[in-house]
Specification:
heterodimer; A: 106 residues; mainly beta; 9 strands; globular; B: 117 residues; seven-stranded mixed sheet; four-stranded antiparallel sheet; 11 strands
Chain lengths: 106, 117
């Protein structure tokens, strides 16, 4: 079955750039969504179709997807960006989530 | 605005079934698939399946085949997820999520299901 692999944790200093990766076989051939989940809250889509931002998502969130790796980039990370992030793709009519990455801003 | 409101927390015994509801508002209910995703305590997101509210057709993740049933009532814009033969490892928060933008663009608030003897 198809798998998506994320690093368990990423740390970034406030104002710096955070990059969270998501790896899978020929991932660049699929569309990726990214979700942010803060403690006690439901997930929220922050990137769709690899690099598009839903309305209301700050410009500091961006995405890319090529080859076997998709990347969520947060430019100028803020304390409010501290959360779990999940990538998601489709494979054979099944939604696949990565294991999640805990982003710490300190 | 688009909103998904789920039913309240449930406590069930092993072997029982649970039915979680998800009432949609703010958009044409039959125009978008509805997904169900669960999250065990301290764990990641796990997709269970989706239902086409227009046709009623559903496809389920292989792991849940035979144990999950997704239905809908278009007269009240509500989707349902029924999980049977509950085990302790089914203890989780269950979310419904509207299909959109090649993913899930709006999520419900979650329903906690606890399976305990």
């Amino acid at each position: 079955s198809y798998e998506l692999t994320q690093p368990p944790s990423v740390s970034v200093s406030p104002g710096q750039t955070a990059s969270i990766t998501c790896s899978g076989h020929k991932l660049g051939d699929k569309y990726i969504s990214w979700y942010q989940q803060k403690p006690g809250q439901s997930p929220a889509q922050v990137i769709y179709q690899d690099n598009k931002r839903p309305s209301g998502i700050p410009e500091r969130f961006s995405g890319s997807n090529s080859g076997n790796t998709a990347t969520l980039t947060i430019s100028g990370a803020q304390a409010m960006d501290e959360a779990d992030y999940y990538c998601q793709a489709w494979d054979r009519n099944t939604a696949i989530f990565g294991g999640g990455t805990k982003l710490t801003v300190l | 605005q688009v909103q998904l409101v789920q039913s309240g927390a449930e406590v069930k015994k092993p072997g029982a079934s649970v039915k979680v509801s998800c009432k949609a508002s703010g958009y044409p209910f039959t125009d978008h698939y509805m997904h169900w995703v669960r999250q065990a305590p301290g764990q990641g997101l796990e997709w269970m399946g989706r239902i086409n509210p227009y046709s009623g057709g559903a496809n389920y993740a292989q792991k849940f085949q035979g144990r999950v049933t997704m239905t809908r009532d278009t007269s009240i814009n509500t989707a349902y997820m029924d999980l049977s033969s509950l085990r302790s490892d089914d203890t989780a928060v269950y979310y419904c999520a509207k299909d959109g933008r090649e993913g899930m663009d709006v999520w419900g608030q979650g329903t906690t299901v606890t399976v305990s003897s």
